[in-house]
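Chapter review: from sequence to fold.
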Amino acid sequence: MANTLATPAWVTKEVARAFVNDMHFLANVNRTYDDAYVQAGARVGATVNARLPQRFLVTDGQGLQLQNLFDQTVPISLTNQKNVAFGYSSAQATTDLDDIRARYTNPAGESLANAADVLAFQNVYKDVYSMVGTLGTTPSATLTYLQAGTKLTDLATVLQGRVAMLDPLAMQTVANAATTLFNPTATISEQYRTGMFGRNTLGISEWYQDPNRPTFVSGTVTASTPLVNGGAQTGASIITDGWGSGGSFLKKGDIITIGGVNSVNPLSYNSNGRLQQFVVTSDINDTTGAITIPISPSIITLRCAPDR
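The token string follows.
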């Protein structure tokens, strides 16, 4: 009779356990739709559609003013698969291998977790259209993180459960910036002992450091005075001109603003009085001094309620 001391199922579960425990960025991503992929008898394939919240407009007066229901969804697709493969025979498991969890399954799980973390970072951060601070400069003041909280609040993000994911240098820099503070005593003491910024600080519930945080290299722009070419533009692109001919290159992830276009609170529809930031959604070159820039979020003309 052949004995198997470490079955494939056991190894798979152990690798998955190590994988989950070593994730930082991914562990804080909303996974509400995870179960949609595993419904018995109702497989959805490689894509599920995440439903966006309804956005209603408050109207004035007693008169009934019906609004259309508009369901919006965002497709979420399983587009990447990664693996760490190794094998051994039952004889090797019996006579040669020892400490399988410590020597093999845990390192495999750690490698997969790091690969997934890097992939997630690379696929997410270039789609974010809000930023604070100076590109290429590690934030050295707590004000920068408070301003990041302002950006979230402007977009009607809930105040509870906010998470900061910093690279190690940024973490140590902000922890050092707080060394001159004296309260709250317990939090400051923890920062001093661990070199990590304390939790529930600056409006952020949890602070993590992750060495997989990517570094962005922006596009290049020669001496230019770019202008919007044509008013009343809407949608996911903006027509511009005035660029230095043949000398400008915008990269996916670059942030731009447009004079007079302010951020609007998605619940109240009131202007925040601050310029809306747009992220460039794909690389684009200038060849003639004119660029049609693909942007996110899309520019939408709001329908105002009567008597406003």
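Two observations follow directly from the output. Residues 100-124 form the longest helix (25 residues). Confidence is low (pLDDT under 50) at residues 304-308.
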